[in-house]
Design a protein that fits this description.
285 residues, alpha+beta, Four Helix Bundle (Hemerythrin (Met), subunit A), Jelly Rolls, 2 domains, 7-stranded antiparallel beta sheet
C-alpha cells in the first residue's frame, strides 16, 4: 500500500473519534467570522471525497488527467451543511475516505506513476502543479490527502498532526537477499517522483536506451561492465554511473552483482525494447 494511502487510513482512524467528540454545539461555531464551521468543513471534505473518487477512477481509464472542478462554496451552501446532523456528516466522511484508501491501494503502480503531459492539476489540485510539467495520478492522490489533513487542522487545531508515513531505515542486505531472479528490479523506496530499486545482474542485458529518463546505477556488491557504444566502464563496489536519457547502454556481469537503481517512477527496465526481460510493474519489497 502506498504511503499516502496508509496515511489516509491513519487520519480517518485518529480523527473520527476526535470529530465526534466535538459534539453538536461546537460543530456549529466557526473559528473566525466569515469562515466555515466544522460542519461546513466536513461537508466540504465529503464533497472533495466524492469528486476525487470520480477522478481517481477516470484517471485509470483515460489518457489524460483533465477533470472538472466544482464551486466549493456554492456546494457547501446549497447542501446546507451548516444544519446537517454532525454525527451523520462525520460518519459519511469517514466511510467515504476508507473507500478512497482502498481505491488508491488497488490502482496499479504502472498506472499511478504514468506521466501525463495533458492535465489540469495547476487548477484543481490543493497544491497546484506546473502546467508545463507532466503530472501523475499518484500526484493527485497524494495531494488529496494533504488537502484533507489541512482542513482537519482547521477543526482540531493547528497543533493537530497525525504524522505522515513512518520514517524507517531500509536494510539493503535484507532486500537483496529477497531478490531471486536476475534482471528483475524491485522497488525498495520512493522519493520526489523517483524509485530506488534493487536488482541482481548476471550475464549480458539487452542494448537499449530510455527516451526521457536518466538512470543511476550504484554497485552494492560485486562488479559489472556498463557497455556504451563508444566505450566500456568497469564498476566496482561503491562505484556509480549515470546514463543520460537517449544513450544506448548494456550492463554485463560475468558473475552475480547487486546494483541499486535510481530512476523516475514508471521507468521501463528495457527502455525502448520489449522482450522477455521487460518488467512493466516492478514488485515492491
Amino acid at each position: 500500500m502506498q504511503d499516502y494511502a496508509r496515511w489516509l487510513r491513519q487520519l480517518v482512524a485518529d480523527a473520527t473519534p476526535r470529530l465526534l467528540a466535538l459534539g453538536d454545539d461546537a460543530s456549529t461555531h466557526a473559528r473566525a467570522p466569515g469562515k466555515w464551521t466544522p460542519r461546513e468543513i466536513v461537508g466540504h471534505l465529503l464533497d472533495s471525497a466524492t469528486n476525487n473518487h470520480r477522478r481517481f477512477v477516470l484517471g485509470q481509464l483515460n489518457d489524460t488527467l483533465i477533470f472538472d472542478g466544482y464551486a466549493q462554496d456554492r456546494w457547501v451552501s446549497v447542501q446546507d451543511y451548516a444544519q446537517a446532523p454532525w454525527a451523520e456528516l462525520v460518519t459519511a466522511w469517514s466511510g467515504m475516505n476508507l473507500v478512497l484508501a482502498h481505491v488508491m491501494a488497488a490502482a496499479p503502480e504502472s498506472v499511478r506513476v504514468a506521466a501525463h503531459a495533458e492535465h489540469n492539476l495547476d487548477r484543481i489540485a490543493f497544491a497546484p502543479m506546473a502546467r508545463n510539467k507532466p503530472a501523475t495520478l499518484d500526484d493527485l492522490m497524494r495531494d488529496y490527502v494533504g488537502h484533507l489533513h489541512h482542513h482537519l487542522r482547521q477543526i482540531l487545531g493547528d497543533e493537530y498532526s497525525t504524522a505522515a508515513p513512518d520514517v524507517d531505515k531500509v536494510s539493503l542486505s535484507e532486500k537483496f537477499a529477497r531478490v531471486t531472479v536476475h534482471w528483475s528490479p524491485h522497488i525498495v523506496a520512493s522519493l520526489n517522483g523517483q524509485h530506488v530499486k534493487v536488482v541482481k545482474f548476471q550475464g549480458a542485458f539487452v542494448w537499449h536506451h530510455h527516451e526521457a529518463e536518466d538512470e543511476l546505477f550504484l554497485v552494492h556488491r560485486g562488479r559489472f561492465r556498463m557497455e556504451l557504444r563508444d566505450k566500456t566502464l568497469q564498476l566496482e563496489p561503491g562505484d556509480l554511473v549515470v546514463v543520460p536519457h537517449g544513450v544506448e547502454h548494456r550492463p554485463v556481469a560475468d558473475e552475480e552483482v547487486e546494483v541499486l537503481l535510481f530512476e523516475p517512477a514508471g521507468t521501463l527496465n528495457t527502455g525502448n525494447v520489449r522482450n522477455e526481460r521487460t518488467v512493466t510493474d516492478p514488485a515492491r519489497l
